Amino acid sequence: MSDRARTRLSGRTRDRIRTSSAAGSRVPGALAQLAVLLRTPAGAAQPLFAQSPKRWQRALPFVVVGVFVVTLMPVTITVLANDYGVGGGWAGALGVAQTVPLLLAVTRPWPAWGAVLTADTVAAVLLIGSDKVAGQSWPWPPMTIVGYLVLMACLGLRESVRPLVGVWLVTGAVGTVLGFSSPAGVTNTTALLFVLSGVLLVLTGALRGLGDAQQRVAEQESISEAERARRTLLEERARIARELHDVVAHHMSVITVQADSAPYRVPGMSEPVREEFAAIAASARESLGEMRRLLTVLRGDGAGGANGVDGERAPQPGIDRLQQLVEATVRAGQPVELSLAAGAAGAAPPAVDLSAYRIVQEALANVVRHAPGAPTRVSVTVDDDEVLVLVVNGPARDAVVELESSGTGHGLVGMRERVRLTGGTLDTGPLPDGGFRVAARLPLNDLTEEPS
Q1: pTM of the predicted model, to two decimals?
Q2: Whole-number Å distance between alpha carbons of 367 and 169
Q3: So what CATH class is 315-443?
Q4: Which keywords fit this entry according to its UniProt record (predicted)?
Q5: Is the dihedral of CA 336, 341, 345, 351 positive or negative?
Q6: Residues 353-385: pLDDT tens digits?
Q7: Is the per-residue pLDDT at 397 higher than 70?
Q8: Contact 159, 109 (CB under 8 A)
Q9: Beta-strand relationship, 336-340 and 187-188
Q10: Where in the chain are the domains?
């Protein structure tokens, strides 16, 4: 997995934990957060709960294991010395060896498991010759079982199924081998530890497996989201390209007609000039044909309009059609006011004219979807250098209306692409009162190069 994808997934994990915290008013907050943390697998070099957004949550595994170590160490030393009759030096050494390695289990469970299992095995061998071992639990005393189960919990939350099965089998094998030298009169705890460790490994392994599955789902969702955004962008660019084809094709057709008709409109034209106009007309027709062949791919969806006529062959709208657009929106129940500067309809070149119309169209569509009933104001002003398109809406009036939340983002993507195409700027964002603002500045000057 890439670092960028891992970062996104870590962010999703923190969001899930914060969501669980926000739900604390309905369920116990600590339990909800703990459930999410236990299902979140830690990386190979990370301690448990390393992806938690809060410091105390990241420190929780160290605190819990530390409490077990501080509690089990004196208990182990005391039980070995008093109940099993082990010498004070050996009891102290075994108590330290069996409990202190548990501190490694949070970050490095494999070395901790090796050290603890070795210390437990050495202690079981030493207890064989103890005078007080009869009537006691062997080869695993109660405090040994508790410490080993803590280690199994840490191991199960980090490792996959196959290593956990190996750990469980090794645990049973060591107990079985020791059982051949079992002292008389002891309570054999081999089966007890084998069963308890197996149950704990199954539970923690299941939690880890659930966390891994959720991580894979989150990864796929992230990939799908990126692909969906990319597909939306490509579709919007294709739609803009088709519309630009209509604009450019019109001008190319005009050039062709003018060049072809020039000899008839201007009498007395010399032969070289006639040939030059003929060459211009031929180049224009060739360019128009190449453009149509290129756009055939984009128009190859086979979708036609009524009566078999493609609706996209209709004349493209512009600023002069904004009044009709606003009236249609008002008839649909959306209160909209239009402020159109005098002369704005004929001041913009075709590309800017079409872009201004589409930006207003997309903005009004978003208002209808996400803020039905909100008062909306559309303003189009023109100066010597640019066209300013402003669409501002207030908060939705009808609070009981369920707003659409499944949009694909085509509107904003289309606006950005159209503004980028004309070399302008786009400013969108929410307002303090709960409304939304869309402001586009589209330059009127002809573009000589593609905007970066």
Answers
A1: 0.48
A2: 64
A3: alpha beta
A4: ATP-binding, Coiled coil, Kinase, Membrane, Nucleotide-binding, Phosphoprotein, Transferase, Transmembrane, Transmembrane helix, Two-component regulatory system
A5: negative
A6: 888 988 998 888 888 878 888 899 999 999 888
A7: no
A8: yes
A9: unpaired
A10: 3-222, 237-299, 315-443
